[in-house]
Amino acid sequence: EKLRATQPYFVLDTEGFTQEVYLKQGISHFYTFRLRENQPVLRVVPDGCIDYLFSFTSDGRMRAYVCGTVQKYEEISYAGLQEVFGVRFLPGVHPAGLSCSMKDVLEKKILMPGYCEELSKESDFYQRIRVFLRYYTRITHEEPEPYGKAALVESIRDRIYATDGNARIADLAEETGYTERYIDRVFGEEMGFSPKTFCKIIRFQRTLEFLNYGAPDSMTDAATALGYFDQAQMIRDFKTSSGVTPYRYLKLITYGSYRQRVHERQTNNESVKQG
Which domains does the chain have, with CATH numbers? Predict the structure, then answer.
């Protein structure tokens, strides 16, 4: 099953969070939320994704941003954002038509003037999805197939993704026929971080997904199943990425009614496209 990278604090710290699963064209899902009054920052965790954020103000203005992944837990200022419509791409996917690399947007929020301006006329979440897909599909059809280094990065990304972040770099080298040093350099040039870091991000996201279903019978068994060396490594990596231990996270999503706050459904892709 494809990993739908999550930002749990987007759910816990905002109002009216809704998401629509898509899983096509490199898109994980669409989401929307409203920031609470006097909320200066949002807590953000590593997800390996690029997000497009569209901010709508009460006077009808819209701004579009491209946002890169963080590499550890951060508290980021989203001053000026009120109502947000977001598009999250699958981990490691470079959106069609984006002129810069993932490295260029790493840990940044960059304004995209004029991007998909038709969205400014819509207020309904599902109509915004349809408008975005019409716009993005046109761009996708114009995008050339990856080749050379881009194709290599894509194959490494897909392998890491398929193994839930438990791929060994030595195995990647053997499968691709390139040296570990070359793989590390080429991947870093495009992504802004190493394959090993991407593995850690994907493993962390799988851990989030696992914990979102409830407390495991044994945290030690969970750590082993998720590919960690031991429970201590899992707790250490999880706290670096989320700001809290797995035990504290379980309390947060329980008391914050995380699962009840996520209004989610699987998109009927054709009906969304055709509107």
Answer: 8-143+258-274 (no CATH), 149-255 (1.10.10.60)
